[in-house]
Amino acid sequence: MKIGIVGGTGDIGEGMAMRLASDFEVIIGSREPDKAVSASTCCMDILQTRGVVSCRCSGVPNQEAVDGADVVILAIPFKHLASTLATLTGFEDKIVVSPVNPMEKRDFFTFVPPPEGSAALLVQKMLPKSARVCSAFNTIAANKWRALDEELDYSVPVCGDDAGAKRQVMEIVDKVSKLHAFDAGPLAVSAMVESLTPLLLNIARYNRMRDVGIQFR
Amino acid sequence: MKIGIVGGTGDIGEGMAMRLASDFEVIIGSREPDKAVSASTCCMDILQTRGVVSCRCSGVPNQEAVDGADVVILAIPFKHLASTLATLTGFEDKIVVSPVNPMEKRDFFTFVPPPEGSAALLVQKMLPKSARVCSAFNTIAANKWRALDEELDYSVPVCGDDAGAKRQVMEIVDKVSKLHAFDAGPLAVSAMVESLTPLLLNIARYNRMRDVGIQFR
Q1: Which of A152, A158, A161, A192 is the best substitution to test chain B (most B C-beta atoms within 10 A)?
Q2: Which of residues 139-178 of B touch A (CB under 8 A)?
């Protein structure tokens, strides 16, 4: 299975690529193709140093990351989500994963959803009807993705309206470290999942913790 | 410290009273005083059977549970929250705890906050300015409160604008089983906490689990 990461050289995308590249063929996309190429070289170097011999990872412009992938992960901040999607085409029949959290830092971190109700619902509205949009990975911090020596022992709620796509996304989640996917229901539930991330940032801030995650139990 | 539980004979209040009565003097309030009295008798019987000799628990009308308590917990469903508060007085200078989650079951469970932004913010708006409102205990299921043989090994986000009141509520939380209080920030963050409960109900439903809770880690 080929996983394309739009924004694959960003905060979250970079570590995500490294975590996924030992099990999947990863296509790192970027607005700046040079950065994507060097990120993919760096990713393979790091993985080979760690003894992962079979990793496959390439760096391309965002559009090629969409075109070449079966599953496209939108690893972009909410403020660039709509403008980035507007420049891309070819999402027909693809599985599209949104880990995006619309939030703002005021006196505290707060959930500020778009009129659609959530970032994932905005993605669904902007893409062709045949794109199968899911939300996943919302609460995994960028630092955690990158810290390859640390197990990711967290729960990951996955939302989506297409049962087959959701099952495939849950299988991808379960391949990463000790992440454990939970079916959180239809895509509309993503509003409740996305609002978890600013809550976790507040918990971290007010309890002097770093990169707080969650487990359902 | 005296803890009054408004709605102390309801789903959540009943188990909450039993869990709290071994460490605090608990005043069970109800619209129906007879039910409050029998709930308090039942609570003491159960605790004494379990070897807790020093439990103190009484049953009274809701208003007396407010009047007699230092800390008032509003253990009432959201749909009865405003109407119940409208019948009660005497909240001046009290610590008031809202575990209330405004949600509806449609095709799935969904967070439906009042115009104020959260149930806790609605409580703050309805009560006198000197009442020190916190949110806590939002994600602990009624069945878990009642199952005295089970440890409650969960994280509890606590929100509030008054630092002293929040600290006291966090100390109460930490006394209960293995609950662990986390400062989640000002009361406005309660919107993100309250939306966790319908998310957990969806997780339970779609993964065939019961009474799902959370841990921050």
Answers
A1: A192
A2: 153-154, 157
CA B31 to CA B72: how far, in whole Å?
A: 15
The amino acid at residue A169 is: V
Please state, in angstroms and rounded to a whole number, the distance separating the CA atoms of residues B24 and A105. 38
Q: What is the ipTM of this complex?
A: 0.96
Average pLDDT value for chain B: 96
| B128-147: pLDDT as tens digits | 999 999 999 999 999 999 99
Out of B183, B191, B207, the one facing A207 most closely (by C-beta) is B183
Could you give the 3-state DSSP secondary structure of residue B197?
A: helix
Cβ-contact A44, A59 below 8 angstroms: no
Distance CA A173, CA A213 (A): 15
Cα–Cα distance list, B60 to B69, B70, B71 (Å): 12, 15, 15
Residue A157 with chain B: CB contacts under 8 Å? 199, 203
Say yes or no for a CB contact (<8 Å) between B203 and A157: yes
In this prediction the pTM is 0.96
User: Is residue B119 assigned to a domain?
Assistant: yes
Q: Give the total number of structural domains in chain A.
A: 1
pLDDT value at A138 more than 90: yes
Range of the structural domain that residue A33 is part of = 2-206
Contact at 8 Å (CB) between A102 and A111?
A: yes
Per-residue pLDDT tens digits for B2-22: 999 999 999 899 899 999 998
Q: How confident is the model at residue A185 (pLDDT cuts 50, 70, 90)?
A: very high
In-domain check, residue A213: no
